[in-house]
Design brief:
Length: 297
């Protein structure tokens, strides 16, 4: 599909949000023939966000980023998303993308993937393509396992590598405290060093068979686990102390997100979340957040 004839060669600067996610639970069910792991996870989009400022150019893709550590060439997922969409659409238009980074990197929060998904959504509009979500999803899956989730957002059960999604409706009235302990953890290292045969989760009791508990916040701590926590907590025991500290502060649920290093605690009342935030180690990067609702189910 070619872009609309009315699509401008240059567009005004527009701002797009790229929200972070936390994994409310994550199970590793086994190895796949393609080298990945079979996963089952519950994604929840949260209000911590990067902001992308995008303008259409006649040609070429240029990237800028507020974090000097982030690559601004084809090593950036947003650049790759723009290039993939442009090639898939068969168009010659370009863009300039400026990324204001707020989501910590290497923290299990999906910042790069969210930037890529926001780029797909933004350029789908800015380039006048107006492709439906179903046409963008295969491109998102090509970019990364959790990029498809960020196209839809909200809350979803992810299976396969995380790209097979089932939207979930869960209570949205809680508040969270997110702690990034200024530690970058390699996802590859986590999977290479984890002994999934020793995890305590019951593989025959999968999340998808337990989705009835999703609206019972008090049951989350009973049914949800993160199979990646043991290997990470063994090397970095102070991360486990952060989880325990949230629970002592009254969190109804606390967990490591993804492969870490970010730790989050969830609270029924904003005042309790603010109290826990105030008690967090001052040298860490912290955020108060709330869940971001996806499209109506």
């Amino acid at each position: 599909m070619s872009p609309d004839a009315s699509a401008p060669m240059y567009s005004p600067l527009r701002h797009y949000s790229a929200y972070a996610k936390v994994n409310l639970g994550l199970r590793v069910l086994g190895h796949r023939e393609d080298g990945y792991h079979e996963l089952e996870t519950i994604f929840q989009e949260i209000s911590v966000r990067d902001v992308l400022t995008i303008a259409v150019l006649p040609e070429g893709i240029t990237i800028g980023c507020s974090d000097p550590v982030i690559p601004v060439d084809e090593g950036n997922l947003a650049w790759r998303a723009a290039d993939l969409l442009r090639r898939s659409a068969g168009i010659g238009l370009g863009c300039n993308i400026q990324i204001k980074k707020n989501i910590p990197t290497g923290a299990g929060l999906g910042g790069g993937s969210s930037d890529a998904a926001a780029t797909l959504k933004a350029l789908n509009r800015e380039w006048g393509l107006h492709w439906p979500l179903e046409r963008l999803l295969p491109l998102a899956a090509e970019l990364g396992s959790d990029v498809p989730f960020f196209l839809r957002g909200g809350c979803a059960l992810g299976r396969g590598r995380g790209e097979i999604l089932q939207p979930l409706a869960i209570p949205q009235g809680w508040w969270g405290v997110l702690v990034y302990p200024n530690l970058t953890i390699s996802t590859r290292w986590v999977y290479e060093n984890a002994n999934f045969d020793l995890t305590k989760s019951l593989k025959n009791s999968k999340f998808y068979s337990l989705t009835g508990f999703a609206d019972k916040l008090s049951d989350w701590d009973i049914h949800l686990v993160n199979d990646l926590e043991p290997v990470v907590f063994n090397k970095y025991p102070y991360l486990k102390k952060l989880v325990d500290g949230f629970k002592r502060a009254g969190a109804f649920y606390a967990r490591m997100s993804g492969s870490g290093s970010a730790i989050f605690g969830l609270f029924l009342d904003k005042s309790d979340a603010l109290s826990a935030l105030a008690k967090t180690e001052s040298s860490y990067t912290t955020f108060l957040f709330h869940p971001v609702a996806g499209p109506a189910l």
